[in-house]
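Colleagues,

Please find the record for the two-part complex below.
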Amino acid sequence: MYRYDSYDQAMVDARVAEFRDQARRRLEGKLTEDQFKPLRLMNGLYLQLHAYMLRVAIPYGTLDARQMEMLADIADKYDRGYGHFTTRQNIQYNWIKLEDCADALADLATVEMHAIQTSGNCIRNISSDHFAGAAADEVVDPRPYAELMRQWSSFHPEFTYLPRKFKIAVIASEKDRAAMRLHDIGVRIVKNDAGEVGAQFYAGGGMGRTPMIAPLIRDFVPIDQFITYAEACLRVYNRYGRRDNKYKARIKILVHELGAGEYIRQVEEEFAHLLSVGVEPPTAELERIKAHFELPEPLRLPGQGAGTPLPSGGAAESGAPGQARGGAFDQWVKRNTHPHRHPEYVSAVISLKPAGGIPGDATSDQMRVVARLAREYSFDELRVMHTQNLLLPHVAITDLPAVYAALDEAGLGAANMDTIEDIIACPGLDYCSLANARSIPLAQRISERFAQTGRTSQVGELKLKISGCINACGHHHAGHIGILGVDKKGVENYQLSLGGSEAEDVALAKITGPGFDEDGVIAAVEKVTDVYLASRTAGERFLDTYRRIGMEPFKEALYG
Amino acid sequence: MSQNLGTSPDEVQFRFRDDEPVDHGTVTVDSALEQTNAAAVRIEPGDDARALLPFLDRLALIEVNFPGFGDGRGYSAARILREAGYAGELRAVGDVLIDQLSHMRRCGFDSFAPDKRLDEEDAARAFATWENVYQRAADARRTIPEKRHEA
């Protein structure tokens, strides 16, 4: 994975010093809170309902054991012994004190980490496919391209006061595991017919109160013009994105109001101009970055059968002779592993969704267990998934029993990836000052209920996403089932929607009808799964059945 | 058009040029397009800086106004002017704050007339925040990627 050189380290150190100075000027009254706010936001410090929240960047979701241990130490030292992993592959601490913040940032800098641009109206941390570098189906590892963008976007002098926040995702496979088209810019690294690597750009996607799927704006940008094209996209947005209304300030509104065709025309004009100016980093830089992402030696040559899903019998056979294994282990292997490019390895998902738990939360002790497992079994590499889970990207199949046993002991062994228990939920009214309703208790009750009734495995893949307000941090528009919490005359009310997807079959969910109270929406989710179970044909996921039979049968069951 | 639109040389707090500052009427972009003798013009956030490109030769001062520090359109305006070869004074005026100085400098601003005078020491520190930079901009600084691959 990527390692800082002295330049990268100096940039992060300079940022810590700058933030310390800003905090001093704030305390001396030289900065008003209005003036300080964007500065602290660009250092990841956000004011929630009860306290400051610090959001630490985990670029493209990749980190090593040492870094995970530092995240655990920070949770103990400056917070309440836990952290929350987010849908953009970062971690948030919910109880940070303003006066501790510079020290926490300084600690992070010792392990090549930071909170730069994790909030504010700037280019945010670049996200990517959590299986990057391991997945059997990718064209190349997308992370070097994301790292190139990370450096370009860090302290970008022109794009620090954009109309609104700006999120970029980079993937390199047909399958979309990063909700790429729901980003302000989505990039897919591709190869053309001549075998040359280039970038496909989508722009103007997003969730929030006006969800939009990003249209394709360029099929192929030669890779030695990659940054120049991104700069053109941003410049058009910075100049013409709306600034009169913060709810209409995201790039999706600009692309929508101009029309994709006109936005493309303007970007192409700016792109041609910037090519003549010359803003692209030297091509040798991409090569330098790529070298950091070379797979560890034992993983380099995928043999025959690379990427074939693990046969269910095969998984049960794995492990050292004499090791205990049973139904739960088999279940976990079946649910929580993903094909690796090397046939003797898999990527193993560490669920942060125990039934009845808080989605995405991990204690400092759990973080340390995960770090140890990464060191012992996954070439010192870890990932944060956009589904608010963690991942050991490179695990030998023979090590799976040992990995599972350790996870299970730490309360991290839930076998529920992509099931109805694997709920994405925003912090909601328990933490967030914007929320209208609680998300976490609802997620807890739903996962507990489905776990108790044993229906989780019966239903199979079903992505449930919960947001506590229309800002949609819980991605409810993209849920196979989405739940949106609203305030109805002082009472929490939940709107149900069906048919969304954040994947390559991207779609926005549609509202079923009138909302429900908390008990009512849990019953409604069960009814919806009743309809699915009664109507599905062999091999159909919930989403497939919904697409085939449409909304009516579900409405009938809910309101008929 | 108002003759008092622009800032005067005494309102300039930081200037990174050796030539004599222009000290006469500053006009709006619209007026500049009509008035062929205007040598100083002021860009507001909604103005298209590119409208000035045909007249850059006759301009000695371009002010870019920041009515609120959070409106970043002026950063693009500045770079666009420098990319087009504008070599005259480029002045950031209005709600210009300490923590914007280094980025503005990188976008091509070479003089600063903040509404409220800034603390000299804090400003000096701010101008020097970044010993190195990642990306190309309107300044001539060699970037980190370029330095990494210097022969």
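Residues 82 and 362 of chain A are 6 Å apart (CA to CA).

Comments are welcome before we finalize the supplementary table.
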